[in-house]
Structure formats: structure tokens, C-alpha cells
Amino acid sequence: MNHIVNENYKIYLITMDKSDQFWMVMDNGAREMASMLGVTYKWNAPLTRNVNRQIQIFNNTVVAGADAIMLAASDPLKISRAVEAAKEKGVKIIYVDAPALEEAVITLATDNYTAGRIAGENMFYELERVGVTFGSIGIIGVTPENRTTVNREMGFRNYFESFGRYQLLETIYTNGVPELAKQATEKYIMDNPNLVGIFSTNEGSTLGMGYALRENDINIIGIGFDITETIQEMIRDNTIKAVMVQNPFTMGYLGMAQTVAALRGLDTGPKFINTGVSVVNIDTLSPILS
Length: 290
Description:
- By secondary structure, this protein is of the alpha/beta class.
- The chain has two domains: 10-110 and 247-276, Response regulator (Rossmann fold, 3-Layer(aba) Sandwich), CATH 3.40.50.2300; 112-245, Response regulator (Rossmann fold).
- It is 44% helix and 20% strand.
- It has helices at 21-37, 51-63, 80-88, 112-129, 147-160, 178-191, 203-216, 229-236, 248-263, 285-289, and strands spanning 10-14, 40-44, 68-71, 92-96, 106-109, 135-141, 166-168, 172-173, 195-200, 221-225, 242-245, 272-274, 278-281.
- Helix 1 runs parallel beside helix 9 (248-263), helix 4 (112-129) crosses helix 5 (147-160) and helix 6 (178-191) crosses helix 7 (203-216).
- It is elongated, with a radius of gyration of 20 Å.
- The two termini are 28 Å apart.
- The model is unreliable at 1-6 (pLDDT under 50).
């Protein structure tokens, strides 16, 4: 394939962390498109989630002469001032997965509220399938400031509003750290003898939930978000019933294309592109991921 001759734009991807596989896949998508378009590209992020460190990296990237930044905001409010300052210096901002409050050229992300409702539908289906018609359900979140996961939680909760026989417990926030999510799952199990299900809202919390359910060998319906090889194994061995799978490669790939279009002054279309979500369970695992 012939590379498109282009000005040597400097484009950066700044994600919430560098530890989740989700961001690694997004980087792959951005890198592939950047290579085709012949632009300079770099991925940077805190090793683990740290809002202040992400803002520091963002500001340093602006100082380093970025033409554009693709950003997944850890805290949409706290980073917005830095985003506003970057825009004033002419830096193009494109949001991937998680927007800040400050307006950007475009956002490429999952419709997280709808994805949360789909997770709720799958939880309800799995409970009904095993004949469980009442009980309590826990939710493991990331942080109250993380709008992407909070919207998933809202969608999930709203789906269950019409089912009075299920009690949705208070969300436990774990910063997306698997070990903390494991502890949160164990706390739900210990404190709620009528616990029938847990919904985890991101990759790290899904891993932690799965580890705890495996160790406790308990019949609780686990519904998660995002996928890794370990999560695939958890679906295969019936530890987790289903996960909502996003398209981080598409976010990175199309995000880079939109970024270069914005730098060239071309029309980038709608302000939001829904990159979609699919349900992966034991029935759909093999054809999708093997």
C-alpha cells in the first residue's frame, strides 16, 4: 500500500493507563493508521491510573509540540482546563473512549449508557435461565468521576428499575485495579447472603471479579466489560457468564484518521461516533475470538 504523502504532523495518544489491554489494542489501531498516513505518532499514559499524572503528561505533550492529541480522559472535569489551554495554542483534540467536558473536534466511543442496559439484559437473562427470580446484585465501578463507567452503571441500574424483586446494591469503586475488585467481590459475597449477581464495569474490575468468583466457587452470575485472554478463559470455564466487548482498535484507527482530517482542515462529520459493543458469552466466544 502506498503511503499518503503528508506534512509530518506530531500526533499523540494519551490514555488513562498503560496496563489494561484495552489501551494496547487502541494503540495498535492508532499506530496502524498513523503508519499508512505517514505521520509521527506516540502513545503515552501513566503506568496505572493517576489523574494528576495524566494531566502532567498531557501538558508535557503540548510543550513538546504536539499538533494533535487523542485523549481518553481519566477525570473529565480536572483535565478540561488543560484541554482548553491546549486548544488555545492550536492543538487539535480528539476524544477516544472517554471525553472531557471541554469541547473537542470529535469523540469516538461506546454508547456506554446503552451498553450498560445491554449488560443488564444479559444479567436478567442469565438469572432467569438458572431460575433465580430475586436477590441482590452488586456493581463494581472504577471511580465516581469516570463518566464512561458511571454511564454503564446508570444504564445497568435503569434496566433493573422495573424489576422490584432484584435489589441493586451500592456500587463499590476500585479504580479499575483487579486486586481491589477481587476484594470488592469478596465483600459483596460476605455481606450479602442473597447475592445473585455482580456487574463489573471495565477490564480490571472484570478480572478481579473473576478471580474472586473462581476462588470462592460460588454460583453468582458475573457480567463484565472488556476482554483479555484471561477473561476468555473465565468465560470458557463458566466463571463469568458474559462480557460487553468494545472496539478499541476502531477507536484508535478511526480516531487517527479523524485527527489527520482535522489537521488538514477537512470535514470530520458528526461530533460523536458510536464505535459499538458486542456481547461475548460461551456461545459467541469461539467464532469471535478464536
